[in-house]
Design goal:
40% helix, alpha/beta, 8-stranded mixed sheet, 12% strand, 8 strands
């Protein structure tokens, strides 16, 4: 429709909870609501660029078929590097399922921004030019897990440190109606209080995989006999800390620059690194669109009201 407002989609950060973005995009497109502008932070950048590059179905197929072992193969202990994630394997995944290595960010069919953070200055960095795949990796480079990405004279890390839900980026590109997706709205507070703290001894999967690679280093770290005295596991601490600061930053940023529609998928039962719950996250994303559909339709098609 000629008079339809320009729609911006702001896809937020949230690691494995980000598969909810796939369900949200599928549900919106099924209703004939296609964004004119897509901005993403971290996993939001990955899913958003995959959508714009025409690879979302391939990405969805991979994540629904993948096992924990498939995800853990991205991780590797190399103390000479600044992260656990194997950069070569991650780049291949991005090139295969998100966007090819030769596509520039400004060559995507619709305007797009991937948000990253300058590690030196703390400045919010928006992708304006350069390879889309590299910007995706920069936007999702969570410190400690992913090595920073060098872009010009800056080291870039996860954009969720400064702008977890990039409403401001959509607005800067000219969006008139902004649909924002906040993956962390019900993570901090009640949700965390209801969950038991997972000790290092109890953490399975990824820690066990990493221990197998560096047994002589880690074996002494998992011998707590008193469960009550045992500290939370490494990734429990990291994910809880990320939940807290992203929730606080998101509230502050969105209070100052609110979206027209905020989708808040109910993802409190999906941990930051529980990549095996993709099907559940996708379904929850679809349901969040269903709940907001009357308001979305009212804003997107005001002439019909």
């Amino acid at each position: 429709m000629a008079n339809s407002p320009k729609i911006g989609l702001a896809l937020g950060s949230g690691a494995s909870r980000g598969w909810s973005h796939v369900g949200i995009i599928d549900a919106l497109v099924a209703e004939g609501i296609e964004p004119d502008i897509v901005c993403g932070t971290s996993v939001g950048a990955m899913v958003g660029v995959s959508y714009l590059a025409g690879n979302l179905d391939r990405l969805k197929e991979w994540v629904l078929k993948s096992s924990r072992a498939d995800v853990y193969r991205f991780f590797d202990i190399k103390f000479s590097q600044s992260g656990f994630v194997n950069v070569g394997r991650l780049d291949k995944f991005i090139h295969d399922y998100v966007v090819d290595k030769d596509t520039d960010i400004d060559a995507l069919p619709k305007p797009c921004i991937a948000v990253a953070t300058c590690l030196t200055t703390g400045q919010e960095i928006w992708s304006r030019e350069g390879k889309a795949a590299r910007w995706v990796r920069a936007s999702m480079s969570l410190p400690g897990l992913f090595a920073p990405v060098r872009e010009d004279d800056r080291w870039l890390v996860d954009g969720g440190l400064v702008n977890p839900v990039p409403v401001s980026a959509c607005r800067a590109l000219g969006a008139e109606i902004i649909i924002a997706v906040n993956l962390n709205s019900d993570i901090v507070g009640k949700a965390l209080k209801q969950q038991e703290v997972v000790t290092a001894e109890e953490e399975e999967g990824l820690l066990r995989y990493l221990k197998q690679q560096a047994r002589e280093v880690s074996s002494s770290l998992f011998d707590w006999e008193d469960k009550d005295a045992a500290p939370p596991g490494l990734f429990s601490v990291v994910s809880s800390a990320i939940n807290i600061f992203q929730d606080r930053i998101t509230r502050s940023r969105m209070a100052g620059d609110p979206a027209d529609i905020v989708l808040s998928p109910r993802l409190c039962d999906i941990g930051l690194l529980e990549f095996g719950k993709a099907a559940e996250a996708i379904e929850i994303g679809e349901k969040s669109v269903e709940r907001a559909l009357p308001e979305i339709r009212r804003l997107v098609n005001p002439a019909k009201e």
